[in-house]
Amino acid sequence: MARIRTFTLALLASLMVVGAAALNAGSALASHGQSLFFEAPSQLLNPATRPEAVEQMERLGVKAVRIELPWYEVAPSHDSATAPRFQATNPAAYAWGWYDSLMAEAKRLRWRVLLTVSPPAPRWATANRRAPYVTRPDDRDFKEFMTAVGRRYGGIVSEYAIWNEPNEHDSLRPQFGAKGNPLAPTIYRGLFQSGYAGLRAAGLRSPKVLMGETSPGGFVKMSKGVPSYSGVAPLAFLRGALCLNAQYRKAPACSKLPAYGYAQHPYASSTLGPFYKPASPEGVTIGTLGRLVNALNKAGKAGAVKPGMPIFLTEFGVMSKPNRYFGVPVGLQAEYDAIAERIAWANPRVASFSQYLLRDDAQSKQPFVVTFQTGLEYADGRKKPLYYGFPVPLTVTYARHGYNLWGMARLAGKAATVTVLIQRPHASRYKVLARVRTGRLGYWTLKSNLRGAHWRVRWVSPSGVVYEGPPIRAQRAA
């Protein structure tokens, strides 16, 4: 069964320290195409809720999914301190359970699958045998497990990723050593190399394996005043995993890591909007993707990874009400989510965007523990504005002489025509602003000098289904 992800309030609060606003590269430099990985673990893993979730996701235009596979959940004798005697590279030795049926469904639907092999490890594969079973997972055991994973799902999975959020204390330990220097990146490097070798041993000649899956915040060093549960900042983590010093010079003994791409979870504080950047230069949020681009360029130049490595944004969402700590109004959630997608689209190195979740998690009753209200639906199944905006995302930003509009018809699959509607100030009704032809991937742009209070977009599919997004206001890009 899917576990409910949580953040402590202190970890989320660390993202609220911000500096100046950040404006990403304009559409002239855009990649003009990116995949979108959708993640709905609770609904997709459960056979009882999967059919409805699949039907919804197809109506929303989903063509790719991210699936997290916790090693602990499928391993034999996972709570035992002593490793069982079994053939660890044999897929038949594991209890794949609902993952098998979900993978089969993804194959039937021809969905692209990103499989993130995640913590915790089985107890017997950790160094201290103590919960939460994330302390120094054994490289050899992990290699054998990844061989079994590759043999089981190699014909279905398009990309693999190693270890969800390894720069977090709850995912990999220790994060820092006795002198305060990061240790988790070195541990992670061993896991990545072992996981990649395991996939090769499964017969996958050139598996596409993403490194990172890092969360957006953290620290460069453990020092006085830094909470003991803190993690390593993503850029410091990247350098450590690639044997790079602060100047991005590589240790001679370290070989190039065979990573296909770098995976990042660019969450930002929802209340501050997607354009803001954290004060720490080591953090990577949706508004500071340029930092990760620059870091990977330096790493490529140092010979630590392949030059021009693509960036995969594999987990992202905007917290909405009723989240009592960081939720924004649901109308603003739809606006911010579309802006974030446009920021990703405008960056030529970004190969994928993502949406986490379909339906909100129930709110935690524990104080200072935050579950995710990033879904298109409330926890009770009621639809938010984002549900209607997701198939036809729209952004409106102020320009020097008017407004720049950007959008997408997600289900189009080819060039199509969308209708852009405008509500003038003090008007009660919308009027047609323009009918715009999209590109072959469904994206479109428009410049307008007509003043408006709200905009929305309508697209009618070839089968006659009408998709109409929620009202969108103009936002300042900087």
Structure summarized in a few sentences:
With 478 residues, the protein is α/β, with parallel strands linked by helices. The protein is built from 11 helices and 19 strands.
Features:
478 residues; alpha/beta; eight-stranded parallel sheet; four-stranded antiparallel sheet; 11 helices
Describe the structure.
The chain contains eleven helices and 19 strands. Helix 10 links the parallel strand 10 and strand 11. The longest helix has 18 residues. It is globular and about 70 Å long. Helix 6 crosses helix 7 and helix 7 packs across helix 8. The protein folds into two domains: 385 residues, TIM Barrel, CATH 3.20.20; 87 residues, Immunoglobulins (Immunoglobulin-like, Sandwich), CATH 2.60.40. The strands form five sheets. The protein has an eight-stranded parallel beta sheet with strand order 3-11-10-8-7-6-5-4. The chain has a four-stranded antiparallel beta sheet with strand order 16-15-18-19, with no helix packed on it. It has 478 residues and is α/β, with parallel strands linked by helices. About 4% of the residues have low confidence.
